Amino acid sequence: MSFLLICAVLASCIPLSFSFMLDGQPENIQEIANELGKLQSEVAALKEMIQELQETCPSCAVSTKQSSPAFMASLSMFVTCNVDAPLVFDREQLDTRQAYDTRHGLFRAPVNGTYMFTATLAAQPNQGFHVKFVRNSLSDEIGYIFSDNGHSGWNERSTTIVVKLDAGDDVWLACSMPSNITGGNSGMEHDYHSHFSGFLIDAF
């Protein structure tokens, strides 16, 4: 695209350059001017095509110059979560496109595409959780992870989902039942008891 724009700039400068080069050769000026006119028309048409492609393909924003969307966030504290309350992973570990919001615990897709999300949750002895993945609204449930009460030791569960999203779609975790989920803020491995991550597999 940059190459075409450079061509357009050069083409706009060519008539002036040739007016100096061909001074005193009037028999050639009209022919060359005609050719330059054709070239400028072709460049203008190419610029118009590029503009149309940009407008009709917003997901083309993913390029070699821009990182592919990926994030990971962990839970920094023990959380008691009521029905339909969002589970906010408040400690950001990675966010290549600033698409994850630590204030509300949601990921907003920056481009259309197929995405993978993973959640790992931990519960202390005799505590449990029932948590759903949701897209845009609590009624659009796209995944589920749970651990029932009654276990005598610590329990950790993980699950992964793959889903198609449009640019602007939100994905987050919410409790489907009253839940108790363990996090950590010690600066050690315990900080990763519970975490939420995702990335773009393929844009479309």
Automatic annotation (TrEMBL):
<dbReference type="InterPro" id="IPR008983">
    <property type="entry name" value="Tumour_necrosis_fac-like_dom"/>
</dbReference>
<dbReference type="InterPro" id="IPR050822">
    <property type="entry name" value="Cerebellin_Synaptic_Org"/>
</dbReference>
<dbReference type="InterPro" id="IPR001073">
    <property type="entry name" value="C1q_dom"/>
</dbReference>
<dbReference type="Pfam" id="PF00386">
    <property type="entry name" value="C1q"/>
</dbReference>
<feature type="coiled-coil region">
    <location>
        <begin position="29"/>
        <end position="56"/>
    </location>
</feature>
<protein>
    <recommendedName>
        <fullName>C1q domain-containing protein</fullName>
    </recommendedName>
</protein>
<keyword id="KW-0964">Secreted</keyword>
<keyword id="KW-0732">Signal</keyword>
<keyword id="KW-0175">Coiled coil</keyword>
<feature type="domain" description="C1q">
    <location>
        <begin position="64"/>
        <end position="204"/>
    </location>
</feature>
<dbReference type="GO" id="GO:0005576">
    <property type="term" value="C:extracellular region"/>
</dbReference>
<feature type="signal peptide">
    <location>
        <begin position="1"/>
        <end position="19"/>
    </location>
</feature>
